[in-house]
Every structure is written in structure tokens, then in C-alpha cells.
Amino acid sequence: MPGRREREEPSAHDEVENRVTKAERILFGRGKGTCTECHQYKTPAGILAQLDPATKITAVQIEPTYVPTIWYERALFDHSSHRAVSCRDCHEGAYPDAKTPSKTSNDVLIPGKATCAQCHAPESTASDGRHIGGAGRACTECHRYHGGDFKPGPTMAKDKDAMSIQQFLLGTPAGAAKAKGGHE
After folding, report:
1. Secondary structure (DSSP) of 4-61
2. What digits encode the pLDDT tens for the residues 93-148?
3. Where are the domains of the chain?
4. How far apart are CA 131 and CA 19, in angstroms?
5. How many CB atoms sit inside 10 A of residue 40's CB?
6. Do the beta carbons of residue 47 and residue 63 sit within 8 Å?
7. Among 5, 11, 64, 153, which is most exposed with the fewest C-beta within 10 angstroms?
8. For residues 156, 162, 166 and 168, what is the CA-based torsion angle, rounded to 10 degrees?
9. Mean pLDDT calculated for residue range 145-164
């Protein structure tokens, strides 16, 4: 129509450039929502936590995170029973404003025994009157060693091959006493 400006449609080139710019922010950026939130980069120069945008992309590999699904295979832990507790109380380093925030994907943010013992200790009353401890504190509350609820694996003896504690301590293989006419 005369006197009216036509609406300009973005060119295909502009659209591609916009999408590439967004992808570069994710790839080369740092922090939340970028690749470096979890990954490091492997280049001919070594492992890098951040890429220089001038780096040739063909020379870059994104390193896997190596985050195991289960950290301690013979432990028993369930986040659902701890859902009333702030994540930050156990995983402080995961927060950028922490005293010592995690800076690399190599950091393992599992709390130590002292953190768990705040609740998993004998029931008592603190000097300020607060109730502390009292949650289950037996080792087997968290740790399922010696097979527990796991099927025997390659590092565990099958019943027919298992030694008694005495045989184990003396280094006598199972069945050796029977072969010599003794008893096990």
C-alpha cells in the first residue's frame, strides 16, 4: 500500500547467524546453562575448563562428566527420606555463593560423616535446649557390606568356595583340611 513500509522479513542468513550466536553462548559460556556447568574441554593444548572463542571447534572434544549413577555401590542412601532437609546443608559447594563453591566438574559434593552424624547419632539435647541426633545410627543404616542386598560379584566368594574366618586368617584354602583327613 502506498505510504506504508513493508515489514522486513529476516533473511535466512540472519536467522542462521542468530542461532549460531545462541549456540556459541552455550558452548563457550561459563556457568549455569552452559556446557561448562558439567563438562570440561579436551584440546591439543590439554584439558580446559573454558574455551577461547578463537579455538578451532574441530580440535575440541567435550569430556564426559564421569559422574557415577551410584557413588558408593555398597552403601544404602535414599534422598526421599531426607527431603525435609535443605539440599544446601549437605551439598554446600554446589551453590555459587558458598564459602568454597565448586569450580570444577571433578569436585565430589558428598557430605562427610560429621554432616550425617548431626542426625544419625545418639539422641541428646544441645546446651541451647535443641533436640539433636536420634535417627538410626547403626552402621547398616547406610552401609550394606559383605553382600548385603547385592548379588555376589566377581570379588566375593561363592558359598561353595568360601572359607571360614579361621581358614581365611591362616591362609588355608577351603577343602584343604578335608583333603588331609581333618575336619573344617
Report:
1. -PPPPPPPHHHHHHHHHHHHHHHHH--STTSGGGT--EEETTEEESS--TTS-GGG-E
2. 988 899 999 887 678 888 888 888 888 888 888 888 888 888 888 877 777 666 55
3. 13-66, 67-172
4. 56
5. 20
6. yes
7. 5
8. -50
9. 57
